[in-house]
Amino acid sequence: MRPHLTLLFLTFSLALTAQPDRNQKFAAAAMVGLNMSQIHGDRYFGYRKPGIRFGVETQVLFRPELFLTVGVGYSREGAQPNAEEIRIDGGNGTQLNLSMIQVPILLNYRIGNRKATGKRDNFALYRSPILQVGAKVTRLIKFSTANRGFFDQLRAAPPINEVGLEFRDIDVAIIAGATAPIGLRYAVFVQHALSVRGLYDPDALIPYEGTRLEVSQLRPYALSVGLKINVY
Q1: To the nearest 10°, the Cα dihedral for 35, 36, 42, 44?
Q2: β-strands 186-195, 66-79 pairing
Q3: Would you tell me which CATH number, out of the four given (3.30.565.10, 2.40.160.20, 3.40.50.720, 1.10.760.10), belongs to the domain 2-231?
Q4: How much is the pLDDT for 17?
Q5: Fewer Cβ neighbours under 10 Å: the N or C end of the chain?
Q6: Backbone region of residue 159 per phi and psi (left: phi > 0; alpha: psi in -120 to 50; beta: other values)
């Protein structure tokens, strides 16, 4: 049943049509891009783990300059050390792969001339940059680790994460970004997302016996760059 509902949502999103003017209420877009991700809370830094993301979104237009987007898509994120981090850990390292279904909900604001919405001014408002802020709900559908050395999971700072801890399925992340239109049909987007819940269940993050150290919560973060195709 769920695959059918997902297919219906995608079809509905891509079938929505509207003209780029101030009377427009709905539009839709498809997007594809690249994630450069890492995990906050482990010993690794930077944006080294590449992964693909793609999806569709429905745009609910409140005013010409302000609209809400609700989407659904796939995102591949994770963590990956560099050679120096592996060397510091004595030749040990863990590459984490996270495959997720994500539902982003973003408030979008066009920063161009709010009156430039018609043919006479070449729809200048709709060609102006867009600022985005919001959140996404993610559902972890698959994860895997590729280990170099003898550790089964990421090393936290300062302690080592327990092998027995499991990742939870649902996470929430905050998003900030910007979109640069290329004409009325295409746009390039940049977004940054940071998990606010984390991968581990809080009940599992208990102190180590006989110490004051605790297992660190792991929060995925990702920088995404990609192409968006608007359907009017």
Answers
A1: 160
A2: unpaired
A3: 2.40.160.20
A4: 37
A5: N
A6: beta
